[in-house]
Amino acid sequence: MTSLNDQESSKGLAAHEIPKLFDPIGKASISLEDYKQAHAESIRDPSAYWSQQAKSYLDWYVPFDQALTGDFSAGDIAWFAGGKLNVCYNAIDRHVRNGKADQVALVWEGDEPDDIRRLTYLDMQRKISQIANALHAQGVRRGDVVTIYMPMIPELPMTMLACARMGAMHSVVFAGFSSEALAQRISAARSAFVVTADLGKRGGKSIDLKGIVDAARAKIDCEDIITSVMVWERFFDQDSETAPYDMQPKDVRMDLLVAGQRPCHVPEWMDAEDGLFLLYTSGSTGTPKGLLHTTGGYALYAAFTTKNSFALEDGDLFACVADCGWITGHTYVVYGALLNGATTFVFESTPVYPDPGRYWDMVERHKITQFYTAPTAIRLLMRYGDHHPAKYDMSSVKVLGTVGEPINPEAWRWYFEAVGKSKCTIVDTYWQTETGGHIVTNFPGVTPMKPGSCTFPSYGIDTVILDPMSGEPVTEANEKGHKEGVLAVRQPWPGMARTCLGDHHRFMTTYLKVYEGYYFTGDSAYLDQDGFHWIVGRVDDVLNVSGHRIGTAEVESALVSHAAVAQAAVVGQPHEIKGQSIAAFVMLTDGFSESESLIKELRSLVRQEIGGFAQPDLICATQSLPMTRSGKIMRRILRKIVCNEVESLGDTSTLADPSIVDELIAKVAELQ
Ligand code: WTA
């Protein structure tokens, strides 16, 4: 079991100052009391509740007869099994049939603000069908895994939807990951098919994605696994007979292949429990886990949470500015809005290009109705001042969303006042790659807001705070009036991941066996006197850097692959913009000494092995690390050192060499 003492000790962001209650904003569909009643009803009989929702949110080719089977203890959870449907049909075709053929389904804004594309539902149906036919021509069949390593261009969501259409599982790898990380994911999923693009564009710079794919192919057994690499061209020129990149034997010019296909493809009818996609995510130990999400439950949960958490209405232009490489991009860029027949916004660039008014300029120009980003972006933009959002007419926005980490009240207030002009609901949506969609969030017009609290559980989610030691629900409040412990969920919901690909044992031990009978989130949290949920942070060795989830074990394993590093210990330290940044302690191998060039090499090694976003801000080289006599590194002490909490180091007498602590304190002070 995890001890609360091991949790990330400080967010350093005044995260839990005395909260002020803000009244719900917007048209209330129901009152808070109604919500409480409806929520109680939704968890009383989950099977009946979700059965009704599944019929109303999705079109089924063959109806299901039982909503839920299985439970947490056996880990054999299935939703709507036996029912058949296709997620792409539900996201696209049925809207074409229902009179929305000419409605814009996707608005894309590229790296340059004047680079805009709009695709109607009919355009999407035709193009996705062509892509599905192209994938089929390359040998992709139902059940295959297609790895997608692409920039944020409309072809990315369309390739994902084409996979869904033909019953192949997509495994999207964020294009910021290195060739090593990409190779690892291709090989772990034994994915014979890779779809990429020659170039990505961000902040005026080009990124050679194809070069990274080629480097990945040179690693481990990748090239043996891969049978086809389909390459979109970022600036496709139909008349050009040669590819604008160095073509390898298995490469296919995707734009040409797609253009030659008929724009009609009959969707594959899938069982609700067939895999829809894999998404690799970091855990506290070992290599990233390939989480499997399935067809019916995930689609329902994506549609349901988008509709309810954001009060989505017909005609809305929903903008989630996350990358499709993360779960937020899957659920809220690709699937959520389209399943509801709204319009989704796809954004390729950064919040500060060409200037820090970019988001707000887009809101004004496109009349965005819901805008969804992460606290790290809000904190960054807040620094540039109020005059950026003040320049734009953002009256189209009804709801502003936040996700990825606890939002500090200062950033919340800026988002509310400077961006939302105190007229928009801020939805603080708490969820994870594993949960598929929001599990704790406020609802616009319904739930009062407290800056920094994600408020109450979403429908069908039965949250509970457990005592980390006993595993029993916390019933007593502490001296602050808080019921504090770890956050868990008491019963299955449709959007939850079903397994880790090829390693169900790992799924069970990480999520369902830590506290018998519960799904364990890995986060510590408390309920305040009013029952509002407050997330404190991870209790495991998972860091959250700019909303990106990074396992300390992954960074450590990258560092120890250097000959000079005998052992490495990585911890999180508070960072004003990123939330957390990475601090690495490396114990040098005999014969090696510290130098500026070594530190540089170690930084670039992490970049090579994982990606630039995982680079440590601080690397402290040392001859020894604080270890117990049995050789276990005491990360708790390192955490306190980097958080400047040395007065509360606790007991260091169990250390093999207590004198190392003072040495490290002095060294870190020098480096910080
Ligand atoms: C954290 C991202 C506080 C949390 C969707 C969780 C949050 C991890 C919030 C999952 C929030 C996400 N408030 N913390 N609103 N949203 N988190 O899998 O620690 O990349 O466990 O999914 O992010 O990160 P993941």
TrEMBL record:
Where does the source fall among the domains of life?
Eukaryota
Task: Return one GO MF term.
Answer: AMP binding
Q: Does the keyword Ligase apply?
A: yes
Q: Domain named Acetyl-coenzyme A synthetase N-terminal: which ranges?
A: 35-91
- UniProt keyword list: ATP-binding, Ligase, Nucleotide-binding
Domain (AMP-binding enzyme C-terminal) spans 554-632
CDD domains given in the database record: ACS
The segment(s) forming the AMP-dependent synthetase/ligase domain are 98-493
Q: Tell me the GO BP annotations in alphabetical order.
A: acetyl-CoA biosynthetic process from acetate
Enzyme class at the top of the EC tree: ligase
Provide the catalytic activity annotation. acetate + ATP + CoA = acetyl-CoA + AMP + diphosphate
Q: What is its EC number?
A: 6.2.1.1
Q: Which family does it belong to?
A: Belongs to the ATP-dependent AMP-binding enzyme family.
PANTHER family given in the database record: ACETYL-COENZYME A SYNTHETASE, ACETYL-COENZYME A SYNTHETASE 1
Q: What protein am I looking at?
A: Acetyl-coenzyme A synthetase
Q: Which organism is it from?
A: Phaeodactylum tricornutum (strain CCAP 1055/1)
